Amino acid sequence: MKLEQLTAPSLRDLFVKTIQDAIISGELKIGEVLPTEREFAEQMNVSRSVVNSGLNELKNRGFIEIKPRKGAVVADYIYTGNINTLTALMEYRGIAFTKESVRSILEIRKFAELMVVDRICERVTEEDLDVLGKLLGEMAAAKTPKEAALIAFEFWHELAYRSGDIIVPLGIQSFKAPVITLWERYCTKYGIHEMVENNRQLYDYIADRDVVSARACVIDYMDKSIEGDLEIYDT
User: Fold this and answer.
1) Handedness of CA 78, 82, 85, 87 (dihedral sign)
2) Pair (62, 142) in one structural domain
3) How many domains in the chain?
4) Percentage of the chain lying above the pLDDT 90 cut
5) Is 2 inside any structural domain?
6) Same domain, 205 and 180
7) Residue 182 to residue 163: CA distance in whole angstroms
């Protein structure tokens, strides 16, 4: 195992995480006016530049709004949020994999994966199959759910890229953190083998240029994850 060098989070990152977690947990309520930059700096013993940079990041993530004569206010992040908001929610340890949130992500994935298989079955090359086959082998050899989930993401991102579609690979990359989180949970609940076999079966259909069977394969395993025998919601 190759170990990576550890780095301490910056004061800005710690500030962002502290405020962000307080918002997600409900400790800071939607519409609540936050302290001024000076008050934040004094209370948290950081510079005003750290606070200013952190608040801008929280705004970019959809968690706060800057309003005239009020300053920073906790935003209704479900309404104003973006992909960064979704990532933060999925990475927050206290958030549950509710049926509503997981179902939404899986239905988006299902739509994207069907687009990918439609295109890849028409244009797949031997080089494509070689690259995808190697990733499939690495997925099968994974020792942990996390490792398997990371490789599964790489497999699908590669598949999307090689399909020739311009938009879908970017969309898949945008959903990287929450999708990996869900795949890791899937492997933890049902085993790495289950995920590997789903992708292996799909790979075989793609190799045969069998778009009908490939689509049916995607629909089958996605529907099972959404409302079938392989759900990945918290209970």
Assistant:
1) positive
2) no
3) 2
4) 64
5) no
6) yes
7) 24
Domain limit, last residue, from 85, 107, 130: 85
Q: How many CB atoms lie within 10 A of CB 87?
A: 17
- Measured distance between the N- and C-terminal CA atoms of the chain, rounded to whole angstroms: 34
Q: pTM of the entire structure?
A: 0.70
Residue 141 and residue 209 share a domain: yes
C-alpha 149: how far from chain center: 11
In this structure, the number of other CB atoms found within 10 A of the CB of residue 94 comes to: 8
In whole angstroms, what is the distance from residue 157 CA to residue 116 CA?
Answer: 10
Final residue of a domain: which of 85, 104, 120? 85
Tokens matching residue 40: 């934040």
Opening angle at CA 106, ends 151 and 224, nearest 5: 90
Helix 192-207 vs helix 145-162: crossing angle, to nearest 10: 20
Question: 208 and 127 share a domain?
Answer: yes
* Token pair listed for 55: 């608040």
- What DSSP element (H or E) covers 65? strand 64-67
Mean pLDDT taken over the chain: 89
Q: What letter represents residue 221's amino acid?
A: Y
pLDDT at 153: 95
Domain range for 58: 11-85
The 3-state DSSP class for residue 64 equals strand
